[in-house]
Each structure stands twice: as structure tokens, then as C-alpha cells.
Batch of 3 targets.
Target 1
Amino acid sequence: MTSGMASDRASGTRDRLRPFRDEAIARGVPADDVERWMANARPCATLTRDGSGEGPVVGRFGGPLLLPADIPDPEHPFVASLDLAALPADATDLPLPPDGHLLLFAFPETADDHESMGSAVYVPVGTAVVERDGHAWNPYDFDDYEAMFEEFPQGPLRATADVSLPYHHAVDLREKPGSGPLPGHPRSEELVAAWEHTREAVAPEGPLQIGGYANEEVVHTDPVARAVSRVVRAARAGRWDGPVSDDVADWVLLADWQAGIDVQGWESSSVHWVIQRTDLAARRFDRTFTEVFWNP
């Protein structure tokens, strides 16, 4: 991105965040604190089902499961496929491939510390694919799981280029039990409250998001940080191949799915696909870890 384009994006981001800035200042947060918080803004792509948005169609929820013949059947249900070439230019700051398809899989339920509850598969453009059994993830035909899968959303997805601010306001303390404000942001809790109050006017939420910050029903600390801690524990237990960084800055949110919007019985469930920056740059989507928040 050229310096001029970066400047235009920064200016556009400030304009979009004006309702948030006004709200935060009205709540008594000093302007300098608000400006530092706004510097954390990240671009993201909000995906909504066809008919509820005006952006280009960039993929779909559900549909035929098309994969290269040499890839094993995924262990989790098929959620969505994205046509990366159709995403709006600079919709995210992720180094995504310029084309090809990204397929997302997840089971929207929590698990033990060592288990990823989903996966991501990248299919380069021009790769030969074959249709797979979309129910292969449930070899024992559990009826309640099949009923859950039947409620997964279906249909085309439209993308809108949006802006994202943190939904979390605290970090776990290393020196002692408990948590504290985000480093450098003593008014972080008030700033998050201002964002929650104005987000719908700035960047309305959709069921699926690419890039940006992770969101879930109850947010205190960063969901990505929680996912990273699980990956680290899984690696130490020999359940996840390294190398694995324990620095959250080395990881990004690949995608967020608010599964509880559609899946009855799994209300409040949120799925977070996270990946190390180095793996994303190398297109190692097989090293995507999937964390689920669910408050049954």
C-alpha cells in the first residue's frame, strides 16, 4: 500500500469512527486516550447473507463441499466458503492470497484445552476438486449433532469493508492472579463501553467476519489471547505441531462466526479461527486453530 493510500485509509477510518470518538469524549474519556485507542482500529470484512447487505457476493454459507481429492475429510462440519478474489480490495490487513477459495469448518461447542474445534482449508485457483460427503464429520450419526448441523445457515454471503475496534478491555496479569486494563490504555473499559454503544452505527455486525477483532457474548480479555494459550498448551502436550509462539502479537484473527445467531440450542456460541502471522503469510492454513466460546 502506498503512503497516499495509507493516508486515505487513515482519514476514512477517522471519519467512520467519529460517532465512537464523540461518545467516548461525552463519557469523560480524555481526547488523548481516545486517540490512542482509535490507533488500534483494524480493517475487517463483515459478511452478511444475501439480501441483508449491498456489497459484492464473496462466498456462501454451506453449499456443496468441494475439496481436492488428496485432502482427508474434515473432522468438523462445513460452515462457509469464500472466494478470496471477490473480497473488496484492502478489506482487511491480513496477507490473504489474492485468489482461490478459503473453506471454514467448525463445531460450535467448547472442548478440552488440547482440541481445535474447527479448521480452515485453502484451495488455490485452478485446483481440481471433488464433492465430498458433508456429513462425514459425524461417522456415528448422532441425531442431536445432525439436528444442529441442519440449522447451519445457507446461502450467498455479501461483504462490506468495515472497521473494527477491540471488544475486550483487560489482559491477564502474569505476576499475580487477576487482570488489569490493556497496557497503555487506563480507560480501556470505558472505551469498550463507548464502542459497544456506537458500533451498530459505525460498522453493523454480521454473522461472519474476516480479520479485525474477535467478539463474543461476554468479552473481558481478548478471545485471540485465550486461543493462543490453548494452542501453546496443546503444543506442550504434543497435540499440536510447532513452532508455536506464545506472543499474542504473532497471531491474528482469521475469521469470526457468531454461530448462536442461527443455531438453536447453541445460542451465544462464537467461533474464532486464529493463525500465526508467519503461517498465514506462508499459506499454511492447515495450522489454523479454532477456539469456541459457548455459554450454554
Target 2
Amino acid sequence: MLLAAVHRFAGQQGDHLLVTASNEGSKPCWVTSFPSVKLGGDVDVAALPHSKKDKPGGTKHLMLRPGGKVYSAVNLFDYGSGHHTEQSFSLALRGADGQAGPSFSVALKGEKPQFSWNEADVLNWSTARPYDF
């Protein structure tokens, strides 16, 4: 499984981290729910909550054939002062029981990899890109 992230619409409304998981192996695999995401390098911070505005369907398994991709997004809400700023985050996939597995550090790509937030949440995995505009 290859994980990648891009900071999209930096400094604009709709600012988010687009997360892509690709099956780079030769056998099918699956993801379920939403990724467990911790912003920044502190492993002791709590994982972000699931977005209350997300579509239902996070309990089903999404099969990824070799070369297949799924997407999620970390929604970033920056209300001005008192925000946090980072350039990386960690991500863990969830098992069938909903528990997060081992975390992997994810470095961001894009014109402005640094991101800021006061509040943030995560979307379910999907075969379609969220916010593809």
C-alpha cells in the first residue's frame, strides 16, 4: 500500500489534505472506515474525528485491486489566531474491528506543503476523489 498526500487549496476556503492510498502489490487488499490521522509529529495527540458532514458508508470494505486507488481527505478549519502549523502527519489504516493499525509518517507534496488548523476532521475512504473541483 502506497500512501500519498497533497495540500490542496492552501489558504482558501475548502483547504484540505487529499490522501491517496494505492495498491502497489500484486494481490487485492481492502480499506474500511476512515484513516486514523494525527497531525504533526506528536504521536501522543488524539486521532482526528470522523467528519459529521461525511456521507454514510464507512463500515463497508473497499476492495483495491492491484493498481487500484482510494481517497480520503483531512478537512482543515483555520479560524485565525491560536492555530497549529505543521508540514507532516501520521496515518494508520483501520482493521475490520475499527481499530487503528501501525502509524506511518506522511510527508506532503504540493506548492505549499505547510498547513494550519484550529479544528480538523477526516472523511471516509472512497473510490472517488472528495472535493474534486
Target 3
Amino acid sequence: MKPLAFVLFAVASGASAQSMDPTFVDQKQAAQVTGEQIFQHICQGCHMPDAKGAVGAGHYPALANNPKLAARAYPVAMVMGGRGGMPPFGMLLTDAQVADVVNYVRTHFGNHYTDALTAEDVKPFRPPTPTPSRGH
């Protein structure tokens, strides 16, 4: 996996300078990154700091008070695979980081879904790693 700081810088390159910090975290600190930090450095660039979404160059749905977040699988699938204009983040984040950011969004911004996800809950959403084929 690429160093998380580089990944976050690359993903956030379209975000405002204020919401982006390319020194956010280095690989040694990646395990300590919180769901709130992931939201702040990846998600809020499009969904806005208050998670109310935006319309302009694109449509960025509100995460605040979002009843779709009641189904735990929905936000996990969106973060892992993306959809429409949202890029997939599954290849950039660990299962634990996906669970952390989904749990953060589901318990903040007027959302009160407290059935927390774990890395094990996220694992089934990750495509299997392709095995190298052996020549005949």
C-alpha cells in the first residue's frame, strides 16, 4: 500500500487548501488515524465539514441526518466501491479505517446509528486479492 500521507494528498488534491494537509499522517502513524481524521482529510472536501453536502460542479449528497446510513452495509459499500462521481476508497484504506470513518459519520452530524462496525464487518466488501497465474 502507498504511504497514507501520499494517498490522502492525492485524493484531496481537488479539495481546498484549508481542508487539506499533505503532512496529515505518515505510514508509521496510519494505524492511529481516527474516523474523524479520515472524514476531515478525505470526505469533507466534497461532503463539506458539516456533512450537509453541496451542489455545484457536481452533486455531493448530504451525510448529515441521512436515513440511508441506517443500513450499515450502505456506507461501507459506498466507501469501498464508490458510485457515480464518488471514487472508491477501498484500495486506499484498511478495513479498520473504513469501519472507523463509517462509524464516525453514522454517529455524528445528526446521525445516531450506534451499531458500530468492525474491520471484520468490512472485510466481505473487499474484493478478493487476485492470485498471480502460473505459466504452463
